[in-house]
């Protein structure tokens, strides 16, 4: 909800050279805005793995940091950083558009100083992330009827599909 | 050796001017929408960043198609006279230019068809349909000018308009100029004729699978396309120029008109766009053709 005003005339994030991209192939930064339910997580992982390197993740709002008001919900995850590597978080519920712009500029500085390289961590510790992902994604299997194997593993299918 | 150097220089010049125009165009659109907008050199930063990124390719045909689309447009650019300078001299360059310009789009079509993404395929089929739409009125306009001047050499047509501003084809054939201007809008893929890109609808169409260097090549292709298309209009209707600086300034005026239209218009559906191009600019062009012939 905070991103449309940040992108359009009121806050105009384009003046820093930042713009929205329609596909993960062209994106540098993945913004995860708001709470992440298990079904969303599956899509986030898939999107993240489609992005070409170097790539960065911005977790936006309290919900992605510690669950926020959904901390005890049965189908949302509480800490996004356990499932995909997060470079920078913006806390608040909800953060203002200024906070988004500040976070993006901080991320730019971190990239220049070489601090932000969480995508390397994802490759090095893939087993850890994969185990965490599998643990929660198991819950998305419907009680009645089997889902195809592909969904169970939460695997990233090729874009050719 | 000198020829090779000339060709390189012309290519670099076209890319530089095209990227500069793109950056200024983004700034102008931002100011129209009451934003600050990115700095005018943003397009250079973008291309630099894209070429430094890791990119994903699907197969060899995709690589070939991207290079072919840039190469096709650069080849077109060698035949376009820029203020009297031209890389390759021929006497009938207008026909060669129109022939070579299609290669850019065909290369792009080949690349995205090889990537196998349905959004990209929809996008490129729309782009080729749009090409069908704008080439008919544009060719009609050109036919009128070729008949009037008795030559298909772009240099001779632009030289024939030398002297005062009243000799410009823009003043002499205003209807042809309007038709060409509308066709140019579609040629550049700007709104209201950007159904092939449509980010909200088909996820930026042909560009959907392009990452890193491929997107960078697409940017350069677009930059050269802007340069070539505005240069053709300047030569046809604004009498070329005596030096390069004036020429680029005239090109910029043409590009600015396109950007102004782009900033305020919504998008046509593809069938509406082709219908519009085949009725309004085509009608205007035919009336002008009849006026020239009579």
Count up the helices of chain B.
Answer: 12
- Rg over C-alpha atoms of chain B, rounded to the nearest angstrom: 19 Å
Tell me roughly what share of residues is in helical segments of chain A: 25-40%
How many domains of chain B, as an integer?
1
Largest sheet of chain A: 3 strands, parallel
Specify which chain pair forms the largest interface: A-B, 18 and 31 residues
Stretches with pLDDT under 50, minimum 5 residues of chain A: 152-161
- Largest sheet features of chain B: none
CATH architecture of chain A: 3-Layer(aba) Sandwich
How many β-strand stretches of chain A?
Answer: 3
Q: Could you give the order of the helices and strands of chain B?
A: HHHHHHHHHHHH
Q: Count helical runs of chain A.
A: 7
The number of distinct β-strands of chain B equals: 0
Q: What's the mean pLDDT score of chain A? A: 80
Multimeric state of these chains? heterodimer
Strand coverage percent of chain B = under 5%
How much helix is in the residues of chain B?
Answer: over 70%
Determine the structural class of chain B based on helices, strands and strand pairing: mainly alpha
Examine the coordinates and then state which fold CATH places here, giving the name of the CATH topology of chain A: Rossmann fold
């Amino acid at each position: 909800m905070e991103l449309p005003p940040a992108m359009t005339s009121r806050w105009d994030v384009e003046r820093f050279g930042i713009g929205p991209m329609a596909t993960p192939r062209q994106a540098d930064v993945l913004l995860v805005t708001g709470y992440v339910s298990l079904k969303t997580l599956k899509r986030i992982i898939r999107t993240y793995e489609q992005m070409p390197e170097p790539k960065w993740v911005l977790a936006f709002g309290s919900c992605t940091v510690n669950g926020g008001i959904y901390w005890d919900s049965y189908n949302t995850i509480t800490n996004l950083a356990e499932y995909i590597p997060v470079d920078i978080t913006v806390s608040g519920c909800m953060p203002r558009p200024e906070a988004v712009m500040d976070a993006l500029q901080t991320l730019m500085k971190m990239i220049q100083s070489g601090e932000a390289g969480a995508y390397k961590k994802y490759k090095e510790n893939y087993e850890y992330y994969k185990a965490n992902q599998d643990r929660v994604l198991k819950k998305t299997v419907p009680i009645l009827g089997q889902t195809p194997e592909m969904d169970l593993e939460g695997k990233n299918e090729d874009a050719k599909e | 050796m000198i020829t090779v150097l000339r060709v390189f220089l012309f290519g670099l010049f076209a890319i530089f001017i095209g990227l500069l125009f793109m950056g200024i165009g983004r700034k102008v659109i931002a100011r129209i929408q009451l934003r600050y907008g990115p700095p005018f050199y943003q397009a250079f930063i973008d291309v630099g960043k894209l070429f430094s990124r890791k990119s994903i390719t699907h197969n060899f045909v995709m690589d070939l198609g991207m290079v072919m689309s840039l190469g096709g447009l650069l080849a077109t650019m060698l035949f376009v006279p820029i203020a009297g300078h031209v890389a390759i001299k021929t006497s009938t360059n207008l026909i060669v230019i129109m022939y070579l310009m299609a290669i850019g789009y065909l290369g792009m079509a080949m690349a995205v068809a090889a990537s196998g993404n349905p959004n990209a395929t929809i996008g490129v089929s729309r782009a080729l349909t749009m090409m069908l739409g704008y080439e008919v009125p544009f060719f009609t306009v050109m036919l009128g000018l070729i008949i009037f001047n008795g030559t298909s050499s772009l240099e001779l047509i632009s030289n024939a308009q030398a002297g005062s501003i009243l000799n410009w084809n823009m003043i002499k054939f205003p209807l042809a100029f309007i038709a060409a201007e509308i066709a140019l809008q579609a040629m550049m893929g700007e709104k209201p004729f950007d159904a092939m890109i449509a980010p909200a609808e088909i996820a930026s169409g042909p560009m959907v699978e392009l990452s890193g260097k491929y997107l960078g090549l697409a940017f350069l292709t677009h930059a050269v396309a802007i340069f070539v298309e505005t240069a053709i209009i300047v030569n046809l209707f604004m009498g070329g120029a005596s030096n390069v600086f004036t020429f680029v300034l005239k090109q910029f005026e043409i590009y600015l008109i396109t950007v102004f239209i782009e900033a305020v218009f919504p998008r046509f559906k593809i069938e509406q766009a082709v219908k519009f191009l085949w009725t309004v600019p085509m009608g205007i062009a035919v009336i002008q053709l009849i006026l020239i012939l009579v």
